[in-house]
């Protein structure tokens, strides 16, 4: 038997943010999850259920030992195949 998971909830109304709508994240959730300004999130929706899911984007840092040339080549590959990688992620 594992440790019970505690869920943090909050209620918000959607508000106008430029040409979009935005929903603020309650302070308790921001603190519990240590969300910082500039953090990135993936937002998806299931139209059949109306459920919106928000997940943090996990940043991958390049490991030690890569030469500047290797870093540039890796950046080029990631940029060139960005759509392919994005589509693989959604499978």
Automatic annotation (TrEMBL):
Gene Ontology molecular function, alphabetical: DNA binding
Protein name (record): AbrB/MazE/SpoVT family DNA-binding domain-containing protein
Protein keywords: DNA-binding
Pfam family, one: MazE_antitoxin
Domain SpoVT-AbrB intervals: 15-62
Natural source organism: Polycladomyces zharkentensis
Keyword Coiled coil: no
């Amino acid at each position: 038997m594992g440790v019970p998971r505690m869920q943090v909830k909050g209620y918000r109304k959607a508000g106008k943010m430029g040409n979009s709508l935005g929903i603020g994240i309650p302070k308790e959730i921001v603190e519990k999850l240590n969300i910082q300004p500039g953090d990135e999130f993936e937002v998806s929706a299931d139209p059949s259920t109306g459920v919106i899911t928000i997940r943090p984007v996990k940043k991958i840092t390049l490991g030690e030992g890569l030469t500047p040339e290797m870093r540039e080549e890796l950046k080029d590959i990631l940029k060139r195949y960005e759509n392919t990688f994005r589509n693989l992620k959604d499978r």
